[in-house]
Amino acid sequence: MYKGIKVIIDQSSALCLGIILLLPMGIIAILVKVTSKGPILFKQERYGVYSKKFVIYKFRTMYVEAPEVSNQEFKNRNDFLTPIGRILRHLSLDELPQIFNVIKGDMSFIGPRPLAESDVNVIKMREKNGASQVRPGITGLAQVNGRNNITDEDKAAFDGTYAEGLSLNTDLKILFRTICNVLLEKDIDKDSIDLKNKGERKL
């Protein structure tokens, strides 16, 4: 029942939130543009519901000179963060453009994080445990239980648990814990950006 109306709740909430945040997002866009050369948005193909690809949006947080290597090889990625990008990541504000992904129906507010092509193992595990059958989210159960500090197996397990027990109550709990984590600066390390992904597009 809830799964059927979740997309309606998400899209209507995202539309209202998008209108409210239009001015702040406009200011962020200007700051990104004037403080470093390059596009305002970072665009990249990710795997969504039923493992279908879509383009995810984020505010660009790195210099365009950042090397094109996978996240596993990119040990010093913080050296390539722009000054405004460092702040955006610290406050998780680089994720705000994903509100438009929610409006489009590509994503949900709550759900497993959308995966890049390099996350082959997690993609396969999600397909086995049913996590790929729900829309990916801006935040999710794995993100409030360790984020990048847990193994791929644990991430997939949390995603499977979420998909199996999908409910409004669970979503509200995850939302509350996400807000607390951001305010307390806990587990706010960003999910990986696959710079090697050839599906990246810039605006």
TrEMBL record:
Residue intervals passing through the bilayer: 12-32
Entry keywords, A to Z: Membrane, Transferase, Transmembrane, Transmembrane helix
Organism domain of life: Bacteria
Similarity remark: Belongs to the bacterial sugar transferase family.
PANTHER family listed in its UniProt record: COLANIC BIOSYNTHESIS UDP-GLUCOSE LIPID CARRIER TRANSFERASE, SLL5057 PROTEIN
MF (Gene Ontology): phosphotransferase activity, for other substituted phosphate groups
Name the UniProt record assigns to this protein: Lipid carrier: UDP-N-acetylgalactosaminyltransferase
Species in which this protein is naturally found: Weissella jogaejeotgali
Ranges where the Bacterial sugar transferase domain occurs: 6-183
